[in-house]
Structures are given as C-alpha cells and as structure tokens.
Amino acid sequence: MYREQRKEETETAGHGFMPGLAVDAVIFGFHDQQLKVLLMQYKKTGIFALPGGFIREKENLNDAAERVVSERTALKDIYLEQFYAFGDYDRYDPKPLKTIMTANGVIPEDDHWLLQRFISVSYYALVDFTKVVPMPDRIFDGCAWYDLANIPELMQDHSLIIRKALTALRADLDNKLVAFNLMPEEFTMSELQTLYETILGKNLLRPAFQRKLLSLGILERVAKKWTGGAHKAPYLYRFISENN
Amino acid sequence: MYREQRKEETETAGHGFMPGLAVDAVIFGFHDQQLKVLLMQYKKTGIFALPGGFIREKENLNDAAERVVSERTALKDIYLEQFYAFGDYDRYDPKPLKTIMTANGVIPEDDHWLLQRFISVSYYALVDFTKVVPMPDRIFDGCAWYDLANIPELMQDHSLIIRKALTALRADLDNKLVAFNLMPEEFTMSELQTLYETILGKNLLRPAFQRKLLSLGILERVAKKWTGGAHKAPYLYRFISENN
DNA sequence: TTATTATTGTAACATATTGTTACAATAATA
DNA sequence: TATTATTGTAACAATATGTTACAATAATAA
Q: Does residue A203 carry a pLDDT above 70?
C-alpha cells in the first residue's frame, strides 16, 4: 500500500495512478531451511502489510508489480507470477489505513482516495534471499523477512493472499520448475530437497527426489562442496536454463 | 464491454461502476464434438467481442463475473474460474469503441470514460451448451456460439484472452476435474473422451481413458443408451459431486 | 433366424514411473 | 586406522500408464 508518492499524490485522487486498483506482492525467500515472506511494517502503528503499490497511468500491470518488488528488494529481473485478483467488496477495511494516516499526522476525510475500495491484483515473487536488501521507506519503518510458519497478524485480507500465493506456488512447483529462483546459483541436492519439502509441507524420499530431478535434465553438476562435516562431500548443482 | 447501462451511465464517469476495471468472460460450451465460445457482436459495426461488463461499486468481483455470464446465458450457478488480469497499457485500443459509439449515434469526446484504459480481470465459464439461451441486448446484435477452432477477428486483445483461457482450462482439466461442467447430466464415456480430446487437442487411448476415469470414483453408471447404431449400447454416466 | 458390422467394456500384457531398501563411497574426527 | 554421518546410486517393489486383444452386444442385412 501507499509509498514513494509525493504529498499531493496521497492527497488528491490517484494523481498519476489508476484508481481503485492495487498490486500486492508475496515475496518468497528461502533461508535457514525456512520459507520466508518479506513484510512491511507501518511507522508508529506497527501494523503489518504485504509490499504493494499502485499502477501508474501508462504503466503495464506486470511492470507495476515488478517495480513494487524491485523497490523493496533492490533486485531486478525478478521471477513473478500473477496468481489472483482479490476483489470482494468488504476486503477493503479503511480502519487500519485511517489509524496509520492519523498516527502520521494526516487527518483523512472519509472520501480520501486511499480509503476507497481497492481491487488487488496479486503476484508472488521468488527471489534469492542472499541477494535481497530489504528496503523500507518514508512510510514504512520495517521491511523484513518473516518465517512463513510464523507470520504476524496482517492488515485486511493479506493473510489470505499469502495462503493463496503458497497454493499457487505449490501448483507451479512441478509444472513450471520455479524452485530454482529461490536458490543461490549453486546448491546441493539436499538443499534443494529441503526447499521442496518446505514448500510442499511434506517429506520426500531422497533417492526418488534425486532421480527425478536429475532425469529432468535441467541440472548441471559443478563441483564438490566440502562442508567440513564428517561425511562424503555433496556435489554442487546449477540450474541450466534454455538460453545457456 | 458496455451494456445494460442507462444513458447517463455511458456518459458520466463510471456512475456506479468501478473505473478502469472490467470483467471479461470466456464462456465455453461443447456441442457437435466442438468446443464453442460465446461471442457478442456489436450492432451496425459487426465488431466481435467477449461478453464482459463492469464491477458495481459495492459488488464483489466474482459476483460481477457471475452476473455477466448470467446475463448472456440465462443460467445461474455457473462454474467460473478467474484465470488472469490483463493489464498492459496498450491493450486498450479506443478505436473500435469509437467506431461502435459513432455508429450508434453517440459522438464520444476523447476523455469519455469508455475510451480510457481498462484492466480486464478475466474468467472462463463452463456451461452446459444445451441449457444456454444466448441473450443479446440493446447494444449487441449478436450473442452466439462460435467454434473455438474458428473464432472471428476480435476486438482488442480478446483473442489472446481466449488463448489464455484455453491454457488455463487445460491445466485445470486433471487437477480440478472441471470437464463435467461442459457435459449434460448424463453422458457416455466416448462423449466424455471426445470432450477431453477436444480440450487437450490430442487423441487419447480409449482403454486407458476409461480405466483412469472410472478409477477416480467420481462417475456413477446410470443406464444404457440405445443409440440406434449397429453395435453394443454404451452406458450412461453421471458425475457424483461430494455433496450428493 | 442367423451372419455381419461397428462399437463397447474390460482383461491381459508391456512399459514407464515412482516408492523403498540397501550399500558402497567418501570427508572429517577420534 | 577405525568411526561417523551423509552422499550417490543400484536394485527391487509397487503403481500407474500405454497398448493389444477379444468377448459382448444392438442394429442391420442375408
């Protein structure tokens, strides 16, 4: 929700943005064997929300989503999937926004454009956790990773949006082979398996997993990784995209 | 695009609708071994378009989609899947709408609300062809079925929307078992197979198809159907939903 | 009545995929 | 040099899917 806009943009209807339309992003990362989601926290009020934004008047919808994610992660070339447009009339509760605005010294009128109904076109993004620099801004105190298993209470229907994002991610896991976007360039087979297990929420058998992924022909074995552990060193793998 | 609205609604910005937002529906039917799509044809100009509409100020997005499909098919309890929000800036070409408005005696100003940019949240609907009564209205001459294999040139990006709808339908075919919504209550196994083959665009082997579908435990064998053909009579089947 | 014909329902087998157990090959440490 | 934990993969089992084959009709023709 609202950020990066100059004062007159928060005050006047839209001002260069499409009215009634927002983009929200569920940005997934993977670290310490945990799926993480990047969340924003509003100044003073402490209310949590998904990173989001609005669509500029001449901006493609998908570009708006990419911009929103770029602004919060300092990344470019982001893997994004649009998964649902949330449009129930009562999804938009003006109370938290009123609280936030009041706490920040703006006394909003009831017909303020930010208090109107919004439809949110939602995307999930898959990013390399190690490359992200979480970026707060003037409006948000916080921009930080939270374990998916331990998400704080969120504004409006943002918890539902995260749940639906996870469902979409699970469905895309086999079809679109999206998991590699959550890994660093090189990774071991067991790291990859842990990621799959975390996303799917269930354990997988190691030999079957390894056989399956190698048979896809999309992994290149790079080198060995000496972990320092008292055991055989695992191979490192790299994802081979079609254009390489 | 625009329909059912009283004159002032076409003239003033939105008037009870959310601005900049539309809902479009790819309504699939199945008849004569062909997948069909319900298309609208504008009066006088002959321009083809998908059935669509706008979202009322206090209406749920999904309800708007259901209303749009109901208005064109005279059905209720429609199987709907939201599959994508189309939001490229240049998807909205004002020319065909200008042509249509001019042909219908409205001289539009350049900032007329209908000529502005729209984002289309698109749904596909699966309906029983035999139960549909195609409903034109004051704005549209035509509301009729067209073979998916033989769609006329459509307004704006509506051809792309149909292509994406078919992709989504194919993906949902196995996961969500949606095909039954395109069939009458009772059907033979070969009719069902033909539907699957038409949607997937490839032939399936009969014994494997029958074995697979029976093993799902979602079909109830009802009676035999004497086709009048010189061969064994096939069984009729009915889909068993969970709540029956 | 009795072949003939086209299609249906399903068994039977072949092949491919996935689930499971087992074990040799390490890399560090004791 | 033994011990330990983990890796890579072979080998077998169980399922699922692909394919061939054939008996069981329901109409028509002989």
A: yes
The alpha-carbon gap from A82 to the nearest alpha carbon of chain B, in Å, equals: 7
| Residue A1 maps to a domain | no
pLDDT tens, position by position, B80-97: 999 999 999 999 888 888
Question: B76: exposed, middle or buried (C-beta count within 10 Å: 0-12, 13-18, 19+)?
Answer: exposed
Residues 6+ apart with CB under 8 A from A167: none
For residue B244, being part of any structural domain is answered with no
Domain span holding position A94: 7-175
What is the domain-level CATH number for residue A194? 1.10.10.10
Per-residue pLDDT of B112-141, as tens digits, reads 888 899 999 999 999 999 999 999 987 888
**Number of domains chain B is built from:** 2
- The answer to whether the C-beta of B235 is closer than 7 A to strand C is yes
**Chain B residues within an 8 Å CB radius of A60:** 87-89
Residue A128 lies in a domain: yes
A175 contacts in B (CB within 8 Å)? 171
For residue A47, the domain's CATH number is 3.90.79.10
Task: Answer for the pair A172, B171: CB distance below 8 angstroms, yes or no.
Answer: no
In degrees, to the nearest 5, what angle opens at C-alpha A236 toward C-alphas A230 and A238?
165
CA of B205 to C1' of C12 (A): 16
**Are the beta carbons of A50 and A143 closer than 8 angstroms?**
no
Q: What is the pLDDT of residue A243?
A: 55
**Looking at A129, A158, A175, which one is the last position of a domain?**
A175
Nucleotides of chain C within 7 Å of a protein C-beta? 4-12, 18-22, 25-29
Mind listing the pLDDT tens digit for each residue in B6-51?
444 444 444 789 999 999 999 999 999 999 999 999 888 889 999 9
Cβ contacts below 8 Å, chain A against chain B, sum to 61
